Every structure is written in C-alpha cells, then in structure tokens.
Amino acid sequence: MDASTTLVSAFLGLLEGLTEFIPVSSTGHILLAGHFLGFESAGKTFEVVIQLGAVLAVLTIYAGRLWPIFRDAPHNADARRTIYSVLIAFLPAVFIGVLAHDFIKHVLFETPKLIAIMLILGGIVLVYIDRFAPEPRHDDALKFPIPMALAIGFIQCLAMIPGTSRSGATIVGALMLGASKRSAAEFSFFLSMPTMAGAFAYDLYKNRDILDVSAINEIVVGFVCAFIAAVLVVKWLLGYVSKNGYALFGWWRIIVGAVAFVALSLGY
Which residues contact 75 (CB under 8 A, 6 or more apart)? Predict the structure, then answer.
C-alpha cells in the first residue's frame, strides 16, 4: 500500500467516524468521496468493514452503562426488556439486508447520482421533522416500548438506500414516534451496534473470496481512523442535539447532495 493509498484510506476512515452517528449518511459521503478520489475497494468491503471501528467507539463509550444491563438481565425484567427492544429493532434489517444484499451492493452502491438525490431528500425531511416533530413522550432510550422499537427498526431499513443515512432514518423515526432529540440519538447509537456488526460479518462472509492483503491494510488504516473520529463525535453529539436539534445536519445534507449532483451531472 503506497503513501497516497494510505492517505486516502485514512481520510475515508476519518470521514466514516465523523459522519456515522450524525444523520448525514456516512456511506453516502464515503461512496461519493471514493468516486471523486478514484478509490475502489473489492466488493465495496472497505466501506462496510471500517464501520466496525465506529461501532467499537460506541461500545467503548457506553460500556459502563451497557454492562449492568447484560449482567442483570437473568434476574431483572427491565434489563431484559431493554435488550429485547434493541434486538427486535434489529430484526427487520437482518431479513431485508440478507434478501437485498447483492442488489444493494452491486446496484445502489454503484449509483452516485442516487446517493446525491437521497442526501438532498433526506436533508429536507430532517429539517422538517426537526421543526415539526411531535411533543416528546420518551426521554430514556433504554426504555422505549417494544412496538416503538420495532417501528424504528423498519424505518431503519430505508437506510439500505445509500445516501439515506442509518442514523438519520432511526433518529427521524424515533422523533416521529415521540422520542426526545437526545434519546433518539442514543437509541440510534445502541441500534447501530448489532446492525453494523451484523453488516460487517455478513459482508465479510459474502466477499471472502475477493479480499486480499492490500485491502486488509487499507481496512486497518480506515478502521483506526474511524474509531478515533467516532469517539469524538459521539461524546459531542448528544450535548449538541439536546440544545440545537438536527437542522444543521439537514442543511449540510442538502448542500453536499446538491454540489455532488451538479458535479456528477458535469461528468466528474
């Protein structure tokens, strides 16, 4: 792996960590950046696997809060309900992700204009929901009702269209269902762990025959950068959205999507 590839891998890893947990679509940003930088990974595996670095960042930050839940689950009904709510929210992504994996990776991931359009449309939705979301009824992400968690899980599946944003879909879904802005972000964090770990494992299995040593080196660089950036973002994000909401991210999506669409239309 030469120096230029290392720099691109590091940049994409930082981009992943900075954007994974804010509702702007990390996959959309990485795919568009890779397109304009001329970066290609076998089976788009780099783009999926480095997300595991961001997952580990959340696990590291929330370990002190999550460990008592798993420790107490055998004899505590509230702890079990919390685990069930996240796992149930994860199930729709399992079924749809497995069924549509090849279409997502080989068609949707290869359509940069679609990504740009979804960034714009998602930005418009986010700005609207940030302003007109129902009055919040749920302030604790660990106590969302199971039907609400399942509904968020189905809404998360929209993010299989690159450019939509997994965190954006789950946050918008949670806000529409009565979550506070902070708890919507936290539930998105928790749901990201099984969702992204599952995507990582399944993608690694599907692409096991086309991975090579150079790809592994790129992934390691991107993984480390994603982890570091995600730690910083997760610690900052909750305080920001509690005070300011999500409109900034909606406008960011609209601007990035519009610029990318114009550039792609001009043949870049």
Answer: none
Q: Cα separation of 221 and 131, whole Å?
A: 39
CB atoms within 10 A of CB 201: 12
**Domain span at residue 182?**
3-265
Residues 163/25, Cβ–Cβ less than 8 Å: yes
Report the first-to-last Cα separation within the chain, whole angstroms.
Answer: 26
pTM for the model stands at: 0.86
Alpha carbon distance 12, 50 (integer Å): 9
Say how far apart CA 188 and CA 158 lie, in whole Å: 14
What is the DSSP secondary-structure string of 94-140?
A: HHHHHHHHHHHHHTGGG-HHHHHHHHHHHHHHHHHHHHHPPPP-B--
d(CA 196, CA 181): 22
Please write the tens of the pLDDT for every residue from 54-104.
889 988 998 988 899 999 999 999 899 999 999 999 999 988 988 887 787
In the chain, the number of structural domains is 1
d(CA 46, CA 216): 8
Distance CA 62, CA 262 (A): 40
CA 114, 129, 242, 183 torsion-angle sign:
negative
